[in-house]
Amino acid sequence: MTTQEIPEQLLDGYADILVRAAATGRRLTREELASRRELGAQAANAGYAWRVLIREHLNATRVHRPATGDPDHLLATAEQAIDAFAEGYERAQRQVVRQEEAARRELIDDLLYGRGDLGRLAARVERYGLRLSHAHAVAVAEGPSAYDETDPVPRDVESELIARFGDRHILLTTKDGRLVCIAPADQTDVLAYFAKRAHAATDGGRIAVGRPQPGAAGIAQSYEEAVSTLELATRMGFDEPVLHAADLLVFPVLARDRQALVELVLNTLGPLDEARGGAEPLVETLVAYFDTGCVAAKAARHLSLSVRALTYRLERIRTLTGSDPADPLDRYTLQTAVIGARLLGWPGTAL
Length: 351
Fold this sequence. Notes:
Belongs to the CdaR family. This protein has 351 residues and is α+β, with helices and mostly antiparallel strands. The chain has helices at 14-24, 30-46, 50-63, 71-113, 118-125, 152-165, 188-201, 215-236, 250-256, 258-269, 280-291, 296-303, 307-321, 328-344, and strands spanning 135-142, 171-175, 178-184, 206-209, 213-214, 242-244. A hairpin with a 2-residue loop joins β2 (171-175) and β3. α11 (280-291) packs across α14 (328-344).
């Protein structure tokens, strides 16, 4: 932007202020200060660079300085006028930033929740590099703290993504205290790198990746899958740092018919409540047994039990439920019921 591109009205009245106020050294009046603030706001809203505006004020000060008078008075007058101009400029800029942040947050909410007119949404997200005609996948990372876009963690992760991939039509944001990365479905390297950097930046946080889906509604669906996967990992006690919704489809299938799942859990594992100490120790035994591939020695070590104690528990389970964990058919029923119990939070939660 050149000097000639700045309209004269942005300096309107400045020469008169210099002449009148600098001659006596008086402070600017309330009306004079208000006029400077208003012009500063106009300059900000018009998008003029602050450096250029300062240069023009200094040029005007040199051109319109009174022939007589104290130079200190001139500088004091110019300082007051420019300071008021800067106040109006900064106030308008903060307002613009707040409006842009609100618009961006509204856009993110509409995108992740699948709200609003799809055609208008597509036009709005283009400024962030997304093309809703393509399929996208969403990765969500959560750590020990809740994050927003002013925190250093999301800013650092975004800087690393940009440094690595440049303009790859990636959108990084935060939602409900989590980091969210939206990337084209065919750029799996982006989400893999996001998962790696987010895991490190969140001090070992967990990341879930939704399945690729087409269109604006697909982004919302992929996001919902990623969030649900994080919640599932917490309920099931998964310790993997990165989880893919595509690898865990069996769990939402099981949870889809909650009443049937409750009946399976209670009919299969309910009798364990009759054991001394209740059902919880025996359910934990089954969890460890299945998680270690039904190897008694490994399960015993995991539970800090002797193999003999573990074998006794398995026998007790067989006696109470009528299902033998060592029998392939019974094992399938028991394992499915155990998965259901973990999904439902049983026996800690009443069904």
